């Protein structure tokens, strides 16, 4: 977990998860193994990420989204599966 990052209450980080600097993991979020959350990313309440997913820097993932693939940097992604809007 990087500098000045927040892992909120009820969130789980599985094995080999990497969280960059200034990232926020919302309450009740669940990140499976080997997920990479890059700098300045913001994951909303209840986000779920599949094993091996990468969330780009400065990306916002909306509440309840399910990340099933890699998300690029600097986008807002919502839905099931999570997709940039």
Q: Give the averaged pLDDT, no decimals.
A: 98
> Biggest sheet: strands side by side, in what order?
1-4-7-10-12-13
Elements, N to C (H/E): EEEEEEEEEEEEE
Question: Compute the gyration radius: what is it?
Answer: 11 Å
Q: What's the overall geometry?
A: globular
Distance between the termini: 27 Å
Give the strand content: 25-35%
The residue ranges in which pLDDT falls below 50 over 5 or more consecutive positions are none
Please report the number of helical segments.
0
Largest sheet: 6 strands, mixed
> Which class do the helix and strand fractions yield?
mainly beta
- Quantity of strands, as a count: 13
Q: Please, could you describe this protein's structure?
A:
The structure is a single chain. The protein is mostly beta strands. It is built from no helices and 13 strands. Strand 12 and strand 13 form a beta hairpin. It is globular. The model has no long low-confidence stretch (mean pLDDT 98).
Layout: helices, strands, pairs:
Layout: E1 6-7, E2 12-13, E3 18-19, E4 24-25, E5 30-31, E6 36-37, E7 42-43, E8 48-49, E9 54-55, E10 60-61, E11 66-67, E12 76-78, E13 83-84
List the main descriptive attributes of the protein structure presented here.
85 residues, mainly beta, six-stranded mixed beta sheet, four-stranded parallel beta sheet, 13 strands, globular
